[in-house]
TrEMBL record:
This is DUF4440 domain-containing protein. It comes from Hymenobacter psychrotolerans DSM 18569. Pfam families: DUF4440 (PF14534). Residues 1-21 form the signal peptide. SUPFAM superfamilies: NTF2-like. InterPro entries: DUF4440, NTF2-like_dom_sf. Residues 34-145 form the DUF4440 domain. Keywords: Signal.
Length: 158
């Protein structure tokens, strides 16, 4: 009886370890996929690739700018079209992706440098931001950003 219980316990532990390893593989694969999508999204924002941005932003997007202003998906994309949100370059400084829920949810945090058109006096317009993104994988639409929040950071001194 003791051997049977020991065997059952070992079997149960093995199944649990296998299930966790499988989840970790799904989460790891999802994290890599989301990291690539983050970089694609930044590029799409610079290039004003509206079809890709429409696909990558969820319909219920909450986009909170570093100044505290919030937009939904329609408002944010319109701000790019209207020239209120202009990006000459978005440079990724750091990017960390953690996936959860069998690779169906991802939390991203990182730091970026956004270069925008020069200020009226000709000085460079550069913003250093820390940001957090939540992405959810929809069965039909794929990965979509549901939340963006950023905070301005002081420029790093050399």
């Amino acid at each position: 009886m003791k051997r049977l219980l020991t065997f059952a316990l070992l079997l149960l532990l093995g199944v649990a370890a296998f299930a966790q390893a499988t989840d970790n593989k799904k989460d790891q694969a999802a994290a890599k996929e989301v990291e690539a999508l983050e970089r694609q999204r930044f590029e799409a924002q610079v290039k004003k690739d509206y079809p890709l941005l429409e696909k990558l932003f969820a319909d219920d997007l909450v986009y909170t700018h570093a100044n505290g202003k919030q937009n939904n998906k329609t408002e944010y994309l319109q701000s790019i079209r209207d020239g209120k949100s202009v990006y000459d370059k978005i440079e990724v400084q750091a990017l960390n992706v953690r996936a959860y829920n069998d690779g169906k949810t991802a939390v991203v945090n990182g730091t970026i440098i956004i270069t925008q058109p020069n200020k009226p006096d000709g000085t460079p317009n550069v913003a250093h931001l820390k940001y957090v993104v939540v992405q959810v994988k929809d069965a039909k639409k794929g990965w979509q950003v549901v939340l963006w929040q950023s905070q301005k950071q002081p420029e790093a001194k050399s």
